[in-house]
Amino acid sequence: MTEQIDPSESLIEYPSDFPIKVVGIMHDDFSQAIVEVVTIHDPEFHTGKVEMRPSSGGKYLSLTVTVRATSREQLDNLYRDLSGHPMVKFVL
After folding, report:
1. What backbone torsions phi and psi does residue 55 show, to the nearest 5 degrees?
2. Which of 30, 70, 78, 82 is 20 to 30 A from 62, comparing alpha carbons?
């Protein structure tokens, strides 16, 4: 059970655009896999809201996805799904 936070105590104002950085091993399907996960939580999300940046050595790919955050619960669920994805190394 997730703890309910009073909206007045939240540092985020909902709804708002919220950037999330997702890092994984460089792979042809990484970006598409992350877009699919994000779209579950933000149906309006599209690939135009993705910034890609490869690491200097080319081993990792960093994606910044900007989602439309509508609640703390939505963001918590999205972070949980992204963090649990087998292609993801970490989420910020």
Report:
1. -70, 165
2. 70
Residue 76 gets the label, from left (phi > 0), alpha (psi -120 to 50) or beta, of alpha
pLDDT in tens, the chain (92 residues): 555 555 556 688 999 999 999 999 999 999 999 999 999 999 999 999 999 999 999 999 999 999 999 999 999 999 999 999 999 999 99
Phi/psi at 51 (5° precision): -110, 130
CATH superfamily, with its number, for domain 14-91: ACT domain (3.30.70.260)
Distance CA 10, CA 24 (A): 29
Cis, bond preceding 15 (omega within 30 deg of 0):
yes
- The structural domains of the chain, with segments of one domain joined by +, span 14-91
